[in-house]
Amino acid sequence: MPLTATLARVDADLAAGRVPMARQRLRGLVSSYPNDLTLRRRLAEVYRLYGEPAEAGRWMYLEEDRNAEETSSFEARHRTPQERMRALAWRGPESLAPSKFAVEQLTAVRTACSEALGRPVDWDSIPSAPDDEPDAGTGKFSGFLAGAGCLAVVLVMLGIWVNGLIALFR
After folding, report:
1. Is the separation of the CB atoms in 40 and 60 below 8 Å?
2. What is d(CA 106, CA 114) in angstroms, rounded to the nearest whole number?
3. Alpha-carbon gap, residue 37 to 56, rounded angstroms
């Protein structure tokens, strides 16, 4: 569906009080057009209707006239640069941003993420696995225990099955 037709549906949804549907449509549009700040602004407005300052701050993060409380709420929810990069859902180089402020914000987040990881990252290869986090690896022992538990369950089930086969052919 074309952008203008979807935006018309968003307006109709909002007028009819179907805020969740409007939010869903706008999320889809932002996913399809991640570099369109107007769509991000509209999505932030919908999240304000929900009373979600962190999400409003997320989608207004690249706007110079953003609300400081919403921005702080977003930054508190997404504490690391890696989390912020993923949350901002930008694609392509910062130069695609339509304003100087947005370019500066995107560059600052990407640079902080690169420094935190100790290697260069870009918006098309955002670290998504928790293993990329600096404090990753704290759950290796619990992962080992979970794997060992699963193996034990599989071995017990196999033993029961083999025992059943032996009993069947006796």
Report:
1. yes
2. 12
3. 13
Q: How many CB atoms lie within 10 A of CB 71?
A: 19
Its pTM stands at 0.71
Q: Give CA–CA dist 164/152, Å, rounded.
A: 18
59-90: pLDDT as tens digits: 999 999 999 999 999 999 999 999 999 999 99
Find, among 25, 61, 31, 32, the residue nearest to 44 by Cα: 61
d(CA 60, CA 43) in angstroms, rounded, equals: 9
Question: Is the dihedral angle over the CA atoms 151, 155, 161, 165 positive or is it negative?
Answer: positive
pLDDT in tens, 21-58: 999 999 999 999 999 999 999 999 999 998 999 999 99
DSSP calls for the chain:
--HHHHHHHHHHHHHTT-HHHHHHHHHHHHHHSTT-HHHHHHHHHHHHHHT-HHHHHHHHTT-TT--HHHHHHHHHHS-SHHHHHHHHT--S-GGGSSSHHHHHHHHHHHHHHHHHHTS---TTS---SGGGSTTTTTTHHHHHHHHHHHHHHHHHHHHHHHHHHHHHH-
